[in-house]
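Morning run. Coffee first, then this:
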Amino acid sequence: MHSQHTRNITVVLFAVLIVGILLHDTLSEQISTGREPTATITVMTLDPPEIPAGAPITEPGLENDAITATVIRVVDGDTIKVTVDGAEQTIRLLGIDAPERNATSDEPAECGTDEAKAALEELLPVDAVVAVTFDSRSDRVDVYGRWLAYVEVGGTDASAQQIRSGWASAWWPSGEPTPERGSVYQEMTHDAKAESAGGWALCDAIGRFR
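And here it is:
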C-alpha cells in the first residue's frame, strides 16, 4: 500500500515536471524571437434583450419612476398624444372611459363627447409637461399599440380629474385585474353621478357606466 502511494506521487511529480519544461520552452522561444508571451482568453457575452418599439422605458407600477412626456394634443376624453424623447406615443388613460365619437361606425357620437374632450384639453393643454406612470396589475400596451397609463400634470391625476368633473367614469376590460387606482376611481364615479357633476346632469351614461 505504501509503495503504491509512493509511485502515484512520483507519477504526478513527473507530469508536473514535463508540463513545466514544455511551458519553459514555449516562453523561451517567444522571448528569443522578440514576441511577447501571449494568452488567449475567450469571454462570452449576452446581447441585451430587444425592447419593442414604443415600449415603456421604465418598470410598471413604480410611482417614483415616472416618464416625462410633452402633450401634443388631446384625442378625446380619455386619450392623448405625447412625445417622449422625441418619439410620438398615444396614451389611453388607464382605469377610465369617456364618451366617444364612434368614428369607425355610423353611430352618432355619445352624449358628452365634445365636452369630455374639452375638459381634458383644459387640463392637458398642448406642450404641457406630464408624468406618465404604469400600473403593476395592468398591461402596459393595448391591442392598438397605445400605452395604458396614468398621466399626471402638476401632481393632478388626469383620470381622477375627468371623473370628478363628470366627463369620465371608472372602467377597465372585463376579466382584467382591477388597476391599483380602480377602487378609488369607482368611488369617485359614484360620487360624481350622485352630485350630477358634468355630463351626469345631461347624459344617461358616461362612457360605459350607467
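The chain has four helices and eight strands. Good start to the day.
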